[in-house]
Amino acid sequence: MRPSRIIICVAAAIAVAAMLFSCSDGTTFTESEKALIGSDTSAAIMPLYTIDSPLETELLRQVAAPLTAKDVASDVYSVLRHRMLCTVNNPENEGVGIAAPQVGISRQLIAVQRFDKEGAPFEFYPNAVITFYSPEKKYGWEGCLSVPGCRDTVLRSTSVVISYNDELTFEPCTDTISGFTAVIFQHETDHLKGVLYIDY
To answer: What is d(CA 109, CA 100) in angstroms, rounded to the nearest whole number?
Structure first.
């Protein structure tokens, strides 16, 4: 192939990549992700991705992509956040935590019910990662919205240190969590690595 043709091909490839991975709104959400999330803040639950479908399992097994500051400040993120909360609170499939890949969005976002706080609120954690696992571990029962009809015991650390970005400032934050809430954090951050509790 001639050098000029190589340059044209490389330029075309870069242009296609730019269209796929960046959007005019400055976010990194793809057009397919934005279509799945929608733009209506009154929209409720999202379809749950489960291991019953090979295509959905493929996405659940991916390592999720990080969120940028512009992503988290966007209307798309606000709708995703709202719809994830509706989904995890759905009486038909109620849970104590949810990760974005479970609703078909392979991004590093989790929601965790904070049983260690008054009122047990759900809180969202962009780019969540566990930086420390306590050596003390316990077995406990777990289930998963993406693994319907199953429960089993899993050995988890009794406390963890979580690192994430603040939703308002995008500043890096850390938190130390113990007990059942620490188990939820371990379960949900596993989803961001393509790991399911049944792997244990």
So the answer is: 5
